[in-house]
Write a structure and sequence with these properties.
Layout lengths: L10 H4 L5 E5 L2 E6 L10 E4 L5 E5 L3 H7 L10 E4 L5 E5 L3 E5 L6 H8 L8 E3 L3 E7 L3 H8 L15 E5 L2 E6 L2 E2 L2 E9 L3 H14 L3 E2 L2 H8 L3
Parallel strand pairs: 3-14
Antiparallel strand pairs: 1-2, 3-9, 4-7, 4-8, 5-6, 6-7, 9-13, 10-11, 11-13, 12-13
């Protein structure tokens, strides 16, 4: 019996675009599109293929420490992980761990959590994960969300839980090479609608969909 193909909630929308596709972490991923190299205005990429792990509970932070994962001591902030991944603290007792292409921390945590200790509860993370990069990122955010992200202090590594176009999202704001670089996660149940809405607005702002490598190669160095 063959294993069913794991696909992003944007797969049917991205497939007609053509471009270059690769299998990453068992998921088809659009990695490049023709003509994207000149897009510094606004690039929107699906990064759902990156591996993730969620955990919550009063004992979650201590358990992560036993697994060699250091977390922020402040709610709604994040820290970088070795190899380029990240761990976001959502409130006080819930955590989102996401790997880079070079790290595999989330699968190890998933395996270790099969028999969790008391007060530690694994959380299934089947997110649509999006990367936004370019000059017009903040313009898109102003059209879709009531949070003033430009007022945030990026040196404090903030994480924002809010809604965009009616969808609950986790937002990690940042900057790379002098341009805004934001990461978004939402429930994949709303993924198709959320992606279509953002991609339509991105085109109106002079940007559009790009392959994942467009985002990852420009943000890897920081």
């Amino acid at each position: 019996m063959t294993t069913p193909l794991r696909v992003s909630s944007t797969y049917e929308q991205l497939q007609p675009l053509g471009g270059t596709w690769e299998r990453r972490n068992g998921m088809p991923a659009l990695v490049a599109l023709p003509g994207e190299a000149d897009n510094t205005r606004l690039g929107l990429a699906d990064l759902s293929f990156l591996t993730r792990f969620g955990v919550k509970g009063p004992g979650a932070a201590a358990w992560l420490a036993t697994q060699g994962v250091s977390v922020s001591d402040r709610p709604n902030t994040w820290v970088a992980l070795p190899g380029g991944g990240l761990v976001a603290r959502l409130g006080m007792t819930e955590f989102l761990v996401e790997d880079s292409l070079e790290s595999q921390i989330a699968p190890r945590l998933q395996l270790a959590s099969r028999q969790p200790p008391e007060r530690v509860y694994p959380v299934l993370r089947q997110d649509l994960a999006i990367g936004l990069y370019g000059e017009a990122v903040n313009e898109l955010l102003l059209e879709t969300c009531n949070i003033n992200f430009q007022a945030l202090n990026l040196t404090e590594y903030p994480v924002v839980l809010t809604t965009m176009v009616g969808v609950g999202v986790t937002v990690l704001p940042g900057e790379r090479a002098g341009l805004p670089y934001y990461r978004l996660w939402c429930d994949s149940t709303f993924g198709s609608y959320f992606w279509q809405t953002l991609s339509d607005i991105a085109r109106e702002l002079g940007g559009g969909v790009v392959g994942s490598d467009f985002i990852l190669q420009r943000t890897r160095e920081v």
